[in-house]
User: Fold these one by one.
Assistant:
Number 1:
Amino acid sequence: MTEVLFVVTAAKGWTLKDDTVHPTGYWAEELAEPHRLFTEAGWNISVATPGGVAPTLDELSLGIAGGLPGRRKEIRAYIESIQDQLDRPISLDAVDESRYDLVFYPGGHGPMEDLAFDAVSGELLRKRLASGAPLALLCHAPVAVLAAQNEDGSCVFAGKRMTGLSNVEEKLNPFGWKAKWYLQDALQEAGIDYRKGVLPLRPFVEVDGALYTGQNPQSADALAERILADLA
C-alpha cells in the first residue's frame, strides 16, 4: 500500500506587520481534497504536525473565500469525517520520512508562522529532497523549504522550479496587505526558480523531478491528480 505523510501546520495565527494576529490554520480544501483523492485511490495517510499539536481549521477557508456553498459543504463534511485523525497527529520530530512513498504539505497561512522557521520540518525536507523521493507542497506550504538549509545558511531548494501563492494573490486578501513578507518574494530571494500561472486564482502545478508544488487552493485537485497519475 502507498504510504503518505501529511505535514500540517500547528499555527493558530499569523502575525502581521502591525503586530496583530490574524486567526488562521490550515486551508480546508488544500487538506481535504488531496486527502480524499489519495484515500479513494487506496493510499494510507498519516498526519503529523510540529509537536503533535492538533491542527486548526482556518474557518475563512469555509466562508466565501472557500468557493461556492455546495463545494464548501462537501469539504466541511469530509474534514468532519477525518477529524479523529486530525485530532491525534504524530509529532513531527518522531517521523521517519523515508517510510513514506509521498510527503505532502497542505497550506493555509499557518505555515507562514511556524513551518517557515521549523528546524525539524526543515531537516525532513532536506533529507527528502536529497533522497529524490516524491514531495509535494501546496499554496503557502512551499514556505517550509526556507527552513531547509545547507551548512552555509543557503536554501537546499535553491535552483529548483517551484510555485506557491503569488504576491498578487496574497494581496487579494484584505489582511494580505499587512503581511511582514510575501511567499513569492521569499522563495525568489532564497534562489528558487519561482513560477506562477498567467492568471491568479487558477490551477497551476509545477513539477521538477519528484518535487511537486501547487500555486493556490484552486490547484489542490490538479496537484493531487498529477501525483496520482505519476505515482501510479
Note: The first strand starts at residue 3 and ends at 7.
Number 2:
Amino acid sequence: MTTADGRATDVPADGPRGSAAPASPVNRDDLGDRVLTLPNVLSVVRLLGVPLFLWLLLGPHADGWAIVVLALSGVTDWADGKLARALGQSSRLGALLDPAADRLYIVATLVAFVIRDVIPVWVVAVLLGRELVLGVTLLVLRRAGWPPLQVHYLGKAATFLLLYAFPLLLLADGGGTAAAVAAPIAYALTVWGAALYVLAGAFYVVQAARLLSGADQAGAGR
C-alpha cells in the first residue's frame, strides 16, 4: 500500500492561507489539478465498493464475496499510487480520495463487524475515537486557515495492516481449518494495526499542535 498517489507525506506546504512564509517543503499543494486520471478512477471504484461491501456483509451475509471486495480494495489502493507515479498522474484530488477511501472502508468495516459480533466493541471504540479526535483536529486547523495534514507513512502502514486484518477476521469468524489458521494472523494484524493507527493519530495531533503554535507565535511577533 502506498501513500496517497505516492505524494509527499509531511505537513502542508504553505502556512495558513493568506500567510506569507512557507512552513515546510513543497508537497501536495504542488500537485496538478487533473481529475480524470486512471489513479483517480481506481480511487472512485474503491469508494463505490464501500456500500457493496456493507450490503454483502449485512444483507445476504455473503462473507466470501465481502472478503473479495476488501481484497480488491487493498489491491487498488496499492495500484493507484504506483500508477500515479509511473504515469505522472498525481493530483490533488487523488491525494484526497485515497485516504478518504481508506477511512470509509475502516469505519464501514468496524460498524459491520460490531453488528455481526466479529470484533469486540472496545476495539471499535478505540479506532472510531481516533477518527473523532482527528476530525476535531482538522476542524481546528481549518478555522486557523491550514489545509488538511498530509498522509503520514505510519498512518498508511496502520491502514495496510487493518485492511488486511479485516478479511482474515471474517475468515476466522467461520469454522474449520481455514478459520483456525486465519485466527492468530488476523488477531495479530488487528492488534498491530490498531496500535499503529492510534499512534499515527497521536502524531497528527502533535503535528497540528505544532502548526497552530507556530502560527500563534508568528502572529504575536507581527
Note: The CA atoms of residues 168 and 185 lie 7 Å apart.
Number 3:
Amino acid sequence: MPYDDDSVPPARRARRPLLVAAALAALCLTAVTGCGGGPDGAETGAASPRPGGDAASPSAAPTPSASPSAPTTPTPSVSASEPLPRGPLTGRTVVIDPGHNPRNREHTKEINQQVDIGTGRKECDTTGTSTNAGYAEARFTLDVSHRLRELLRAQGARVLLTQDDDRPFGPCIDERARIGNEAKADAVVSVHADGSAVGNRGFHVILPAAVKGGGADTTKIVRSSADLGARIAGHFVRATGSAPSNYIGGGTGLDTRDDLGGLNLSTVPKVFVECGNMRDPQDAALLTRASWRQKAAQGMADGIADYLKG
C-alpha cells in the first residue's frame, strides 16, 4: 500500500474520461476474464483510512529543505562481471520499486519528515501495512520484486531496484522517482499491497494523472503509463486468476491518482501495482503463499514485456 507511496483514496480524485476509456479498452483486450470486475462486479467504496496515511497535517514533522534520505545508487540486478542473457528485452531498462522498507519502523522520525512532491509536501515514506498475522507489506514487496527481477533479467532486461533492504530506511518518495528518472528507465513499477477493510478484495493498478505544477509534470507520461498499467492488469488476471479490485476502479483494476509523489515526479512511464488487500483474510491467504507471489511476479513481468515489445 503506497500511502504516498500510499493508496488511501483521496476525497477528490482526478478524472480522465478519455484516458480511462483507452486504458480500459486495453485491459479488455488483454484480460481473458474481460472487464467484469471482481466477485461483486462493482466498486463498493473507498478503502478505509490506514495508520500512517500521508495527508499533511498541522502536527506533521518540520519540513526539511531536501529529502532526509542519504544519497544512494539504485541497486543493480547483476554485477559488472555477470553479463545479461540476450533476449527480447535486451537493451531495455526496468526499475522495480519495492514499496516501503522493512526497517522504516525503526526510523519513524526520518520517514515522517516531509519532502517536496511537486504539487505539495508529503511524508518521506511510511511503514506499509501487514496481514493480521504480521506478514509485513515491506517483506511482501521485496519478495515479489526479487521474483520479478529474475523474470525480466531472463528476457535480457537491465533491472534496477530502488532499495533491496540495503539501507536503514527509505528511500523517500522523491528519491524513488528520481532513481527511475536518472536510469532513463523504459518502465518503472512500484510493487505494493493494500491495507483496506475486510471484504475489499482484488488487485488494482494506479496510474498517474495529468499533473503540472511545481516540480511535477506528468503530461508526457500519462498515456504511456496508462498503456503500461492496462497491460499489467490484463496479464495479472491471466497469471494469478485474481479479479480486479471490487472497491477501487469500478471493476477495471485501474485507478488514477494525482496525489502520489512517486508518480507526480516521474518523467518516465510508471505505475503502482496493489497486488491485493492484506487485511482481507482471503486475499491475505494468497499474498502469503510463495506460489501465488510467483504468479503475481509473472503477471507483472508479462505485462511489462508486452508493453516494451508493443
Note: The first helix runs from residue 17 to 30.
